[in-house]
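Reviewers of the previous submission asked for a worked example of the structure-prediction workflow described in the proposal, so we include one complete record here. The input consisted solely of the amino acid sequence. No template or homolog information was supplied to the procedure at any stage.
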Amino acid sequence: MEQVKNVWNFDLERPTQQQRDLLLWWVDIFLPKIAGPEWFDEDHRHYQLMSDKCTYNKFTRVAVPASTEAFAMAAFENWRTKWMLQFQFQDENPHSGIPRGRGNEKYEDGKWSTPRMGQKAYGGWTDVGIDAFVAYDQQVVDFRKEEENNGRVKQLFALDLMRRAHNKTAPSAAEEGKKKRKPTTAQDFLHKPKKIALRDDE
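From that input alone, the workflow returned the following structure tokens.
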């Protein structure tokens, strides 16, 4: 958990391969699942920074607010053990569903939450879990402020990692799509199979 907590805490001049891999996993795999595809899908995260603004359904906001990244950190700490146990069970029992109910709490409970709390404030999270989220939120806010003063260099580094990993070279998703499409030539048209609708009397 300490690695995720310190995912942005690395020397930009000499990042280790482990730090690069962790950061790429964070911004390109885990964080998008928390932020949602409307704001941080491939068309967004491979071409802009997470603190840039974007628009969805006529609503404009920061792609990944500090509170969203903070919740991602809290969620990972809260449910990591449960997820690992679920993954282990599925590996050992590929044709069975995850056990539920009495005696199987380890597959359901988080570090600070349990589904048995019902529909309560904060989804049944304990006060300790809520305090952890607040601490993560302040950590991310402080990091974002530092980034603004430094030209958002670490976010740019993360963006470059994603673009290299996915071989992105165009400045936008739309232009990337144009780059991949080959113009149709007369030669292509002549050799392209055509569907012919036959009448019943043919």
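The chain has a mean pLDDT of 88. We consider this example representative of the routine output the project will generate in years two and three.
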